[in-house]
């Protein structure tokens, strides 16, 4: 029904729903996100970098991120929101990025106002931000480069991550909307939602607000939605669950010299076949 996933994302946001999104790093994890009933997939730079076993620090290239997002998009029917770090450079890089992601049917890209090379938001303090002028120029370049109406550009402010206050976060967010951003992601690494809620209390409501409650995990989707948040992203939980499960299972296999103790809690072969669509291959071959 929804070949145009960007339109689907728009329509769901217009319908006033608060969308619940989960992070993924490849086709398989995106399919699990869809099967669990999420509204969209977040193609997370943190997860994708982790899948390459390299730091989330502008090391994975745009082509590699795009390749991961394309694989996810082909594997699921729900929209992909691609985390594009800081747009991979200046306005010229952003124009190219938008054209490439849009051409692959990615519904939305998200670009943050940190300087290149960026570092994951949970590392260190006081990470340097681009000026409002520099970042709005990139937003304009991105919006001017898209060819279809529904493709979305989400502008993310790292004001709180850099230790700045609610006034600066609001100033940046409003400037980014003036430049054409379709939504604002306001990120925070606080252990409570207080600064995000302070932002929501003053927000003009001109475009939807997106949040990522990784560190303020006591906050629920319902609480955030009540404050006016329109998209909640559980950005890295699938990867963290997978890493823990793989690590403990491998350690037990190595220690015990048999898979017997772990058989009851690992996925069955049939579950993998179902995820692959192996049953469809079987039908085709008879
Ligand atoms: C990601 O998932 O890659 C994000 C969110 O950008 S965070 O890791 O919190 O920066
Ligand atoms: Mg990221």
Describe this entry's structure for a reader.
The chain has helices at 5-14, 27-35, 45-51, 62-75, 91-103, 132-145, 166-178, 194-202, 221-226, 237-256, 269-276, 278-285, and strands spanning 19-24, 40-43, 80-83, 108-112, 152-157, 183-186, 209-211, 231-234. Helix 2 packs across helix 4 (62-75) and helix 6 (132-145) runs parallel beside helix 7. By secondary structure, the protein is α/β, with parallel strands linked by helices. The model has no long low-confidence stretch (mean pLDDT 96). The protein contains twelve helices and eight strands. An eight-stranded parallel β-barrel has the order 1-2-3-4-5-6-7-8, surrounded by nine helices. The chain is globular. It is 46% helix and 13% strand. Sulfopyruvate binds next to helix 3. The site of magnesium ion (MG) has 4 residues, from helix 3.
